[in-house]
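Q: Now give one record:
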Amino acid sequence: MPTHNSHDAGQEPEEIDVSKGYEASDVRVSGVVVFLVALGIFVAVAGALSYGIGKAFNAHMLKEDGPRSKWSQSVNVQPLGNLASSPELQNKMAEMTQRFPTPRVQTDDGNQDVADLHEREDLLLENYTWADQSQGKVRIPIERAMELIAQRGLPQAPALEASKLLTGDERPLVALPLTSGFARTGYELDQAAARKIETARPEPHK
């Protein structure tokens, strides 16, 4: 493969003095200055463009969303640090979330909300409560309702005339019971187990 160098082009190669053991020629300052000036111009132009685009976006968002309100205020959380398990950070997060109107974003995976819902259901299922006090209607505990149903039975609905089955059809059979009952979530079972262990633990002697 042919190669071209300065000697082939009719130019004599520059003789390099290697007796000193280092580069004797100085660097070209003009090239460095031109590079730095070009870099500064580029940074200035990029900064000006970024600032202008940011101002344009902010103006557009302000026009679309309206003026700032108490729900859009900024909060400085830098003094709290980066510890996600810090009680101080959790309290601050709870305080911040309470400022926003409902529906709020859940601060956990929803297990506690389900447990709270079941506790409210248990209050209705296991206690006497007013259904309509003006008419004297009272909700009774589910255990008492089951006892009354076992004693009195359920009202019988009038039998309906069964229509004739078509060719190839079969009468559906319903296996009883339809459900095995109310099931707790794994989170609630873990909480119940922890409470059971805590109550079974002997109290320290004073």
User: Anything to note?
Assistant: The mean pLDDT is 77.
